[in-house]
Each structure stands twice: as C-alpha cells, then as structure tokens.
Design brief:
Elements: E1 3-5, H1 10-13, E2 39-41, H2 43-49, E3 56-60, H3 67-77, E4 82-85, H4 93-104, H5 120-129, E5 135-139, H6 142-145, H7 148-160, E6 165-171, H8 179-184, E7 188-191, H9 193-196, H10 200-209, H11 216-226, H12 230-240, H13 253-266, H14 273-282, H15 290-297, H16 302-311, E8 316-318, E9 326-328, H17 330-343, H18 345-362, H19 365-374, H20 378-392, H21 415-427, H22 431-441, H23 451-465, H24 469-481, H25 489-492, H26 494-507, H27 511-527, H28 531-547, H29 551-567, H30 576-589, H31 593-605, H32 611-627, H33 631-644, H34 652-668, H35 672-679, H36 690-702, H37 706-713, H38 726-743, H39 746-763, H40 767-783, H41 791-800, H42 833-842, H43 848-855, H44 859-873, H45 878-887
Parallel strand pairs: 1-2, 3-6, 3-7, 4-5, 5-6
Antiparallel strand pairs: 8-9
Helix pairs in contact: 4-5, 5-7, 10-11, 12-13, 13-17, 14-15, 14-17, 15-16, 18-19, 19-20, 19-21, 20-21, 21-22, 21-23, 22-23, 23-24, 23-26, 24-26, 26-27, 26-28, 27-28, 28-29, 28-30, 29-30, 30-31, 30-32, 31-32, 32-33, 32-34, 33-34, 34-35, 34-36, 35-36, 36-37, 36-38, 37-38, 38-39, 38-40, 40-41, 42-44, ...
Length: about 900
Amino acid sequence: MTTIDEAPTAEWRSGPLPNSPAADPSPAGVPALGRQLFHVARPHLLARLDARHTRLTVVSAPAGWGKTTLLASWTHRQRGRAVWVDSGSRAGFWYRLTTAVATGTPIVSGAAATADPADGPAQLAGMLQDTSSPLAIVLDDCNDVASPDALADLAQVVRTSSAPVRLVLACRGTPALPLHRWRMDRQLVTLGEDELAFSVDEAAGLFAGQEVTLPRLAVADLRAQMEGWATGLQLAATALAHRAEPAQAPLDAEAIDLIADYLGAEVLARLDPQVHRILVEASVAERLTAGLLNTLADRVDGAAVLADLQRQGAFIRRCPAPGDWYRLHPMLSRVLYRELSRHDRDRVGRAHGRAGDWHLIQGPPVEALRHLLAAREWERAADVLHRHWPDITIGSRRLDVGPIVTSLPGPDAPPHVVLAMAAERLDACDTASARHLLHLAEADPDAGEPAASIMAAVRLATARLDGQLHRVCCAAAEILAEPAPENSAAGKLRPLALLSLGAAKLHLGQTTEAGQYLGEAQNLARRRDLDHVEIIATSHLAASYAALGHLHDAVRTAREALELASRLGLGQLTDLSWSRLALAEAYFQWDRLDDAWCCTDAALDNSCGDRLIQLSGTILQTRIRVATGRLTEAHEALRAVYHESGTADLPAPARRALALAEAELRLACGDPAAALERLSSWPDAEPLPAQAAVVEGSVLLAEGRPAAASTVVAPYLTRADPGTSLTCRAFAGLVAALAGKATGHRDQVMHGLGVALKVADEEGHRRCFTAGGHAVRALIESVAPAMSAYPPVVAALTATIDPLIAEASGPHLPSYQGAGFAVSGTLVEPLTSRERTMLRYLQGTLSHVEIAAVLCISVNTVKTHVKNIYRKLGAGRRKEAVRLARELRLL
C-alpha cells in the first residue's frame, strides 16, 4: 500500500527518535496512513483542499485514484478542524455524522449520543450554531454512505449555516447534488482524474519507494499506459519488484493479472451484467461514440450507456473533442479485450470487422486499417492503405495501441498485405516490427506505384521515430529533389518528406530552415486534407517559433495544433507534446511559471517515452525550479537525465542544451567556475550558440570581467542572423547593459537595454528582467526615463520586478560586484573566493553532502568553509548567515 502525504523530512523517513513525543492522535474514524510506508508527496493537492473560501469540495475519480488516502492525509493535518464520517449503512448515516461532529469538535452545548434519522439535519444545524471555529465534514464514498436525500439535506445544512463549515466529498462518480448551483455561487472546488493522476515525477517517486529501479523513460511509458492511475502504478511496481532486471520487463501477464483482479472486483463487479457484456464487445475500439457502440453491441441506446458509465466512475472518460467521444481507460480496455479473446476468436474477428466498417465511413482511416487487419480482411485492409497511405504512414506513436495482429496471413503473404501490416505497426510506434515487415514487403521486385512510395514513407517515418536525424535529412532531400506531378504517388510523398525534414532540422538546431520546411508541410497537408500530417507539422512549427523566441506565433500555432487534434479526436498523438512545450516556453518567458509547469507536465505525461521530448521537458522544468529557488530538485533532475539519457547518441543540440542547463544551475548556485567548465564541454569545432554566449557573458559578469562579457554577447545584439533567438537577444541586451554600467559606458547601457526592451515590447518577454532582480530594476529606473520609445513596457516592468529578489534566483543574470565594490557593514575578515561560492550555495536547500557532491569536494571541507563563514559573519545558523550576507551585499 502506498499512501499520499505531505513531503516527508529526512527525520520522518528515518522514524521517530526513542525519546520523541507521541504523534498527535488521528481524528476519529480516519483511515490510518501507516507512517512506516512510503508516502508520495502531493502538496499541490493538499493546497487545493485548503481553499477555505468554498463551502463544497468534491473529489471525484474511479477506484484506486488515491481519493481516500488524500483526504485522510489532509484530515490528519487539520488538527481538530475536520471530522471523518465512518462508512456504514445509509440508515445510520445521521447518527454517525452527528456523533463524529460531537466527538471531534468542542461543541459548547454538547450533542446527544443518539438521534433519530428523521431529525438528523435539524440536530446537526443546531450543533453547528455553537461553534465558531472552522470545521470540515469529510465523507468518503459519499454516494454509498448516504442516500441522495440525506446528502441533499446535509448540503443544505452546510449551505445555510452561519458557522464556518465546509463539506468535503469523495465519490467514484458524480455526487447526487445540484453542483451547478454551488458552481454559480463560486462555492465549489473539484478535483478529478486529471488532478489526481500521478505525474512522471510522482510515478518515479512511487517506484523508488517500492525499491523498483526503473529508468525515467520506462517510468514515463508505464505512466502513459496507466494514465496516472495510482493503483495501477502500484500493481505494476508489485509485479516488477520480483524481476531481476525490472528495467527490461514490459507490463507482462503477471501485472495484467493483478490489474484484472482489481478492476474485476472494484469496477466490473459493480456493473449490470448486460453493461459488462457491452463493454467487452466495445473493447476492440480505442475510442467510442454512441454510433460506434451501437454498431458493436447491436443496440440503440449507446449514448445513454456511455453517459451513465461516466457518471458512475467506471473508468470511462468523455473526450474534450466534439462529437461525444469517450475513451475506456487503457488498462480496463486491455483487461476486457483479453476477456473477449478468451471466449471466442471468431467473436473477436466479428467485432473488429464491425468496427472497421464503421471507421471506413466515419474515419480516421488508420483505425479502419487496424480493425480490418485484426478481422483478417486482408484485401480490404490493403485497399485502405492504398487510398489513404499519406495520412497513415506518418507514424502517430500512440503507445496504448498494442499489437492486435501477431502473424502473417500465410507463408506467401502478398506484399501489399504485408505493407499494410507494417503501416499499422508504424502507427503504434512499433518501429522494430514495422522495419521487419517492410523488409519482407521489399522482397517483391515488381512492387510498382504506389507501393514504392508507401515503402519510402515507412522508411522515412521509422528513421524519424528512431531519432536517426541525419538519415532522415538525406532521405527527405532525395525525395524532394525528384520532380513529381502533384496527384501522382511520388507527389503525395512530398508533404511527408517536408515534415520529416523540418522535424529533423528542428532537432538538429537548424531552426530557421526547420520553420520553412514545416510551414510548407503544413500548407500542403491542409490543401490535401491530410489531418495527421497537418497536426504534426503544426506542432513542430510551434516548437520552432518558441525556439526562435517568437512567443506569440508559438502560442497561436500550438493552440491550432491542439484544437485541430481535439476536433478530430486525435488528442493522444505524442507529437502534440511539442505544442505543449512551445506553450510552456512562452509562459516561462512571460514569467507565468505555474502555467509553464503545467504545460511541461502535460508534455512529459504524453511523451510516450520519446527521449527528445523528455529531455526538452526536463530541461525546461529545471529552469523553472531554478527560477523558483528549488535548486536541490533542479540538481537531482539533471543528474537523473545525465544518468539515463545516454548522451553519447543524442543530437549535438540536445547535448549542448543539457550542458547549458547545468551551467545555468551552477551559476544560480554561485559557482561561476563550474558553470564555465560546463560551457567548454563540447568541441571547439562546433559553433558557440547564442544561449551559450549569454550564459558565458553572465559568468564573466559574476567573475568581475564586464569588458569580456560585453565582447561575448556583442554579436547577438543585432538581427543580422535570423536564426538568433529573440529570447537570447533580450538576455544578451541585459548582460551588455549591466556590463556597460560596470565599466561606465553609458552608450552601451542604452543600446543593450534598448535591445531588451524592444524584444519585451514585441513578444512580451519578462523572465529575463525578473531574473535580474534589483540590479535590472535599478538599471531600468536610472536609464529608462531617457528612452521614450517604450514607456508602457518600462512601467509594466518596474511594477512587476520585485526589488528584493535575490539575483541567485535568476540563472542568466547573477549579481555582479565591480572591482571598486565596497562592502557595507562589518566583517571579522574578508571571505575567500571559495567561501563566497559556498555562501551562494547556502541560499538554497542543498545539504552539506549535496553541496560536496556538486562541488566535487569532501563533506569535511564543506563543513570547514561553512564554519569559517559563520565565524566571519558573526552568525550562528544558516538562515542568519544568508540574511547577514545580504545586508552586507555579499549576495
């Protein structure tokens, strides 16, 4: 059992000390959390539950999503301000409720020990009149604990009470309450599956707590298959715990058996047998709509069945796309499909055949292909590929689509059928099987058209999905170099080649060229109604805009991709993570850090193990952590990436981005020497990117070398190179302005600040200014009055930049003291250079052991430096030393 609690301290993990006082007693009836077990920290959810301005909080999700444990953890923290209603029969609900309120809170008049259910609401209302302290009434499994009438009466008592009372409900479906009224009065807070789902980081913590060692990409794969379902991840950890090499073990039969047992007892056993049979038939489909369900189950009430299942919390969700689409949870779908396969193989084929017929009319064609192959209607499947291959062979990478065809139709299978099977495997991101089948299809020397073009498309897509970027560039360039009529098979291959070439150029760091190819691919796909191609091209195009610092274009294009995918019911495409990362980058540069984190989390959660998406998302989250002062978390995240990413075979831009992220972190920790060392980690033959120049300029500022800093960033203050990111230009402008101020060159200050303000005016950049803290604010306030071109931007910046922000919170613009800097206040003796570096690390939350690991020195050396710092500052504690150092302007 894994429980969810507040973040544990080191002392908490090691257990209570022998002479420590006893823990506070648990509130009556609250499930024991078992403090000896591993707890997944979920402070963001606990904070949502702390919203006391609302009267009603509803935590609604299917079984096993952590509702009870979350509410029990939150109730433990309330220290007498919350009561928990025991489970039991509906007939005794009011007795249990009034008893819990009477025994759990200091009621002045006292409560009767017994109460007739009929006068329960009146008695509760009277009890609440006698308390003035905040009180939360927590009901777990509220629809089982109380009847609809009793729940409505309780909600009415809470709604009309003059006491500061709240009602917190947990349920598997929708509670029997008029939630719209509470929502209109802004008295409702809801937590659903999306909020309760484990992120990749939380899933990694769960596996670590169960002593199961998995690479981060494997954790991301499992998290995607479970869609963040806590109990599913727990059961997977249980199955993998006995494996000699769990990192190499997929979600095998043992794990599926454990999950099937749980879902059978907690979900399927609660359903009407007829509905159960309907779901078994429907398990062949990845997504469901009323018409498809009616076709599969031979019914006419599919819409009502789907809506009822969602209201019951039966592991089925309504998709945000138009058309009333629903999705079974991947694990429930897999369990039901296994049940269908065990009964009758012919029944499986018939179900797939019906689904294929429906998708032939309604689309998308790749679903028709998949179902017809599963139904062994080989010729019809090959015909679908023949008619729709440009939109099928793009490679969608949907990890939840398992192999449904495991063998060829015969030893002499026709090449066009084998090619259709290769295309289906490509769509499911099974590139190994796709290459094997493609090799078999290529054995036919007389393939002709369009088979030759289809084979070229499959080769191109497999190379792109496997990260063979240079091979993609060569193959795509060869295709584009050959002239072909637009309506010919070779002409239909052109949008795929443009998309593949643009995506490869983007990941190789050639952003301007990438944008050109991706824009052409988007337009061509739009003209030819190639939905998949258009979505993926648009998503990558958004990422290229974000990389160039064109934030408004990035947000607009990313939203286009997400909206189109949602409208077509293709919201599970992995490549949409590039749109989410583009949104995250824009929000980060706009200094909307919470929004940036949410978008990055969504991108990582839907990455399906893509290494480049995982790397890009982790780097961005590292920058967010640094910006919010969480240096320990940032260090741990980067260390994990270095350990697991296999940097040797990463593209050069990805390796450089990883090195730059560490350099920025080292600089934020006050160690410019280590940051400079990371900047020299790639060969001299490779050009210095603009971001590296900005970081190097910041390092030189921190080392007291403003002239050298100006020289490094000077080439990036002009727009001569269209490939220079506007984000880097803004940072470079501020580095140049700060360096000019240090050297007394007012013209340089004006020019650098003007560059930064122009970017801020055009694209809304704010992070570069916020990262600079009071040094940048002072610069703006002293110089900006003479710059009349940007008064609205200047006013907005001076209003948002906190003058008390320590420069250590900004990775690019560290504090700088010139050669003539004089420290105010008193010091016993000056700090050495190493002690000043150590002082910067003391601002964060790194322990002595972690600081020693970061600086590659012994723990005793760290302790010696810290002791000297305390003595010279006259401090007795870490926080006091940091405070005194800031007063002395040492930080």
